[in-house]
Amino acid sequence: MYKVGMATGVLKDEMRNNWAGNGPRPIPWVAWYPADNNAHGKRLCIEHSAKDAPFVVRGGYLNDAINMHQRNWPVVLLSHGTGGSALGMDWLGSRLAAAGFISLSVSHHGNTILEPYLPEGFLCWWERASDLSLTLDALANEGPLAQAIDTTRVFAAGFSLGAYTVLSMVGARTDVRLFKNWLEQSPRTGPNGPKEFPDLSEHIPNLVATSTEFRTSQDRQHKNYCDPRIKAIVALAPPPPIRALTPQSLGEIEVPVHIIVGQGDNEAPHHSCAQWLHKLLPHSHLRLLGKNVGHYVFLNEATQFGKTVEPEICIDAKGVDRSTIHHQTALVSLKLFNNVMADLPA
């Protein structure tokens, strides 16, 4: 096992505007990497015990200490759930880095806690895939990690809407009409949007009428966002928006897909999301966790403050240990990635 280092930054996608239309799309990123075990350099301390912090970040990572004794580390691209952030994947990114992978995670514009939530960011899911591909391109070519990234051994993992993201990165294509039809046929009550944006659907008419950026993005939904560098993916608790992915495109995905979901997930019910997906993917493995394991078990461990103010996402059912599930999920992911690498040409 390696010591873990961390680097952060912000990229700008000059090919896409931000949702306000007044500048390029921002892509904040976090990287966890295998650090030099002999390094005694500056430590990057992540504040994780403040009274207003709901989640624990493992923290204490080395800064500017990339291990260059073994060059060309394999890479895992990470995508957070709706309304989350790059750092929300710390529990997985840091474990993968300790095992010898560079983990690259991004915060998706308009759909991240790092900035005010925007309905466009919650509605235009397909924009997320390009965030990760661009980040891989940029960091592999310049900056402190450029000499260490091996773009011939790239993998991806995503939680909730991040699972949709990594599926689109291996060739799944979107048709929002399929999602709308599925919603109409699925009896449901409650808000017209996710927990983070309960009135989401009510914003659509105004966006169609007033937002050039929203209309432009809608025209991009059918594009193929496949990144051929990705050799396998892990989809954690794939959410209802996967029902917008076309069955034909799912059937054409050639890379291995490992799906992991709790049987007590009310946000992304396994029978209508994960199991539906598993049946359509030719090279998938479905791992069902216990009947009491919910959706938010794939978030970082919670602080006492978080358990007090946001118990729904910070407290797991009795008998469910979030840390244990994180550890097991990391091991399953590592086994998949290492098995695929073993079969790659030398």
Verbal overview:
The protein has helices at about 90-100, 120-125, 125-140, 160-170, 175-185, 205-210, 210-220, 245-250, 275-280, 305-310, 310-315, 320-340; strands at about 5-15, 25-35, 45, 60, 75-80, 100-105, 150-160, 230-235, 255-260, 285-290. The chain has an 8-stranded mixed sheet with strand order 1-2-6-5-7-8-9-10, with helices on both faces. It has a two-stranded antiparallel ribbon with strand order 3-4. About 30% of the residues lie in helices and about 20% in strands. Strand 1 (about 5-15) and strand 2 (about 25-35) form a beta hairpin. The chain has a single domain (about 5-340), classed as Rossmann fold. Helix 1 crosses helix 12 (about 320-340). With about 350 residues, the chain is of the alpha/beta class. The radius of gyration is 19 Å and the shape is globular.
